[in-house]
Design brief:
Helices cover 72% and strands 10% of the residues. It is of the alpha+beta class. The protein folds into two domains: 206 residues, Helix Hairpins; 132 residues, Alpha-Beta Complex (endopeptidase fold (from Nostoc punctiforme)), CATH 3.90.1720.10. A hairpin with a 2-residue loop joins strand 7 and strand 8.
Length: 424
Amino acid sequence: MVLALAVASLCMFNSYDSFAAPDPDTDTSGLEAEKKEAEKELKGIKASIEELAAKKADKEEEMDQVSEALTEVLASIEQLDIQIEEKGAQIEETAVSLNEAVEKQNAQYEAMKIRIRYMYEKGDAGYAQMLMEAGSFADMLTKADYIEELYVYDRKMLSDYEQCAKETEALKKCFEEEEEALIALKKESENEKANMEGVLAELEESAAAYAEEIAEEKAEADRYEAMIAAKNAEIKRRKAEAERRAREEAKRREEERKKAEAAKKAAQEAARAAQNAKAAESSAKEARDSGTVTTGSGSYDISSISSAKGSEKGKNIAAFACKFIGNPYVPGGTSLTNGADCSGFVFSVYGEFGIKVPRTSYELRSAGKEVSYSDAQPGDVVCYPGHVGIYIGNGMIVHASTVKTGIKISNANYRDFITIRRIV
């Protein structure tokens, strides 16, 4: 019956495990799928960040190129300002020179007019008189040359001043044209500068927009990375929980298996014990019915056991114990046939009847309940200092005495006892 219950319990346990539903707290399949999807999204975001970063780099490279060109334009404008300033100074200088040339031309012209008017008013007499008053011919030639040189000089000076004025006017006009060209070039450069500044502003705005997009994508990437980290942590926790539960389940299964085996073994042992007890009861009854027990060393009269007061179980235990008289005493042994010590003998005799008692003589002093010597019955355990025996009635005990004498019958008072314990 016990064996059947143990087997049924094990079958129910296995059946329950076979149909048990998965524990959602340890299932990672959903989390793995969510993590995989998040990793896919993160990969796309990182690719987008790389693309945006490349575009931003392109814009920044264009900005560098425009900035470099703008720097050159600014330097050109600065140089043009210097050239315009220098050209203005040159124009002012030529204007002064022109005024001086015109003034000298006018002065020379006025001088010529005075001499011509003087000659007109005096007629040719003045020059003729000047020639007539010459002291010699050479002197006259000299004066004639002087008059000629004076005329030539006046004409040359007037011509030179006119030429100088024309050249100065032409130079002034050239400077003014160059100045106008420089101013036009400066205006063109300033227009180019304004255009470049506009382009640069657009590039900066575009780069800033890319930077803002990159920042947003990075924030999104951080969110997905945090999500993935959380999923990994949860997956790790669930796996750890699954492993822990698996260990616990394995341990529980092992314990259940051991319990089932123990129950099976206990049932088998109980069955064997029941058979042994039945055999022991039968053997004891047979001995009691015959009034003797036969051992390897002879036959012993046990008829007094049946006539003693006490329970049938106790009498059967006492009669059964007597069947092993003459067998050896073995320290630490529990074999009724091959040898046992005193407590091992009591332990094994009771065990044959399916009754478990303490293994040591010291522990047997507390087993069952205490009875007086006058109330002792067959089957009671008589406890001595360091020794025990089984009472068989009429003041006698059967016990594993010593290595020399083995299992034998003795007077219960062969030495002072401590207590008598009734087990059944």
